[in-house]
Amino acid sequence: MTDRIPATEYDALLLSDTPMIDLRAPVEFAKGAFPGSVSLPLMTDQERAAVGTCYKQQGQQAAIALGHQLVSGAVKQARIDAWLEQIQQRPDTVLYCFRGGMRSEITQSWLAQAGVHRPYVIGGYKALRGHLIARTEQRAEQAEVLVLAGMTGSGKTDFLLKRPEAVDLEGLANHRGSSFGRRLTPQPAQIDFENRLALALMRHQRDQRGALLLEDESRLIGRASLPLTLFNRMSQAPRIVLEVDQTARVEQILKDYVINLRAEYLARDGEEVGHIGFAEQLSSSLARVRKRLGGQLYQKLDQLLSTGLEQQQRDGDLCAHREWIAILLSEYYDPMYHYQMAKQESEVLFRGTPTAVAEYLDQRS
For the Rhodanese domain, which residue ranges apply (predicted)? Predict the structure, then answer.
């Protein structure tokens, strides 16, 4: 077994979902890591900061000595035990630090003394991160990209999840991509989002799925920002448009943002607290578009929303919810969609129902 993983093996490493021990300090890990990595640092944030200060003031040898002093005895053994436990659970685990330097070499050496031999990544996090950025740029430039458009509530995400050639950007960003799109769990850090996206694009290429099908998105999906090269390519890519009648669109929004969201809150927080959290999220989402709606329309929708929340909690009646959703679609989202589509210069390849669009895509593949 090789004791180091070179750049030529990065693709195989990343696409194999090999578990990785991230040896960087927790503050470094929080800024971004790789899917499948677990934070088991060689040094804590405080220890790393102390060693860094020593390096600046006294030089490398003094910093190394301080590091060994801080991570020694029972502290050292506890960290080795944590690495050994991870490797026992997943014997294929590999190691990485920031640059594939001293932290990786020290950890590898200590593990070897314990009778366990695991490789580390040459270049570490920095090189792997650069590799994923380059892969995203490459796919954005070389892949045939198709963009799935459609009015709000058309069920674009549900449609994409059934298509083998699709990459679900909203799923990767953990956000539905609208003012109402926040989920219960937080969005990934920007770097984590970009890393997940790169891996999804690499898997798409590996599996030879043909054209890359992406949902029509603004550059920001919640607070996750699409890489500029990919966003520019999407802006110019030909479109396929889902056409769904308003009744079905209202039901789609009702399912996603009212029924399912409330169920998630109740499952997490219980009936009383869950309904309060759900109601607060819906109300704050509506408030975010208050200026664009105008005062009069906002007041009307806010009142209907309040009525809908009361009726839903009392007896499960969803009529008022359907009413405010229908008004919001027809008076806010639909005009905005038509305006944005009118500005688009890219070709529309096909329009149709979800069934017709699926048939069209099947024929292209």
Answer: 14-137
What domain range is 188 assigned to?
143-365
Q: Does 148 share its domain with 116?
A: no
Quick one: which of 60, 65, 118, 66 has its CA closest to 87?
Answer: 118
Q: Which residue of the set 23, 97, 212, 329 is catalytic?
A: 97
pTM for the model stands at 0.91
Q: Say whether both 186 and 163 belong to one domain.
A: yes
**Is residue 177's pLDDT more than 90?**
no
Q: Which residue has the tokens 């070179």?
A: 6
- Specify if 170 maps to a domain: yes
Indicate whether 1 pLDDT > 70. Answer: no
The last residue of one of the domains, among 79, 104, 130, is 130
Question: At residue 262, does pLDDT exceed 90?
Answer: yes
- Specify the pLDDT at position 269: 95
Q: Are both 73 and 12 inside the same structural domain?
A: yes
- Is 274 found in the same domain as 149? yes
**CA-to-CA distance for 174 and 221, rounded, in angstroms?**
9
Q: How far apart are CA 275 and CA 265, in angstroms?
A: 7
Q: What is the pLDDT of residues 2-16, one digit of tens each?
A: 799 999 999 999 999
Who contacts 109 (Cβ-Cβ below 8 Å, separation ≥6)? none
Task: Return d(Cα 290, Cα 299) in angstroms, integer.
Answer: 9
pLDDT for 36 equals: 87
Amino acid at 99: R
Q: Is residue 99 domain-shared with residue 161, that is, in the same domain?
A: no
Q: Are 211 and 145 in contact (CB under 8 A)?
A: yes
249 and 330 inside one domain:
yes
Helix ranges (H only) for 181-270 are 190-206, 228-236, 246-254, 260-269
Rg (CA), the chain: 25
Is 54 among the residues known to form the active site? no
Q: What is the pLDDT of residues 266-291, one digit of tens each?
A: 999 999 999 999 999 999 999 999 99
